[in-house]
Amino acid sequence: MEKFSKLKELVAGVEADADKFYNSGNGAAGTRVRKAMQELKNLAQEIRTEVTEKKNSDK
Questions:
Q1: H-helix or E-strand containing 21?
Q2: Which InterPro entries does the entry link to (predicted)?
């Protein structure tokens, strides 16, 4: 559950940069958004693996 909380924090933290990129055309904010999206992808994969392991161990 700790990783899921971190995922939610990461999404909330990138919201301002996403707004700056899409609404103001700030290129540096776009770079930060891309970096955060990569972190989200990696974290989501870790969560998927963890869930699969837990699901399979209950059988």
A1: helix 2-24
A2: Hc1
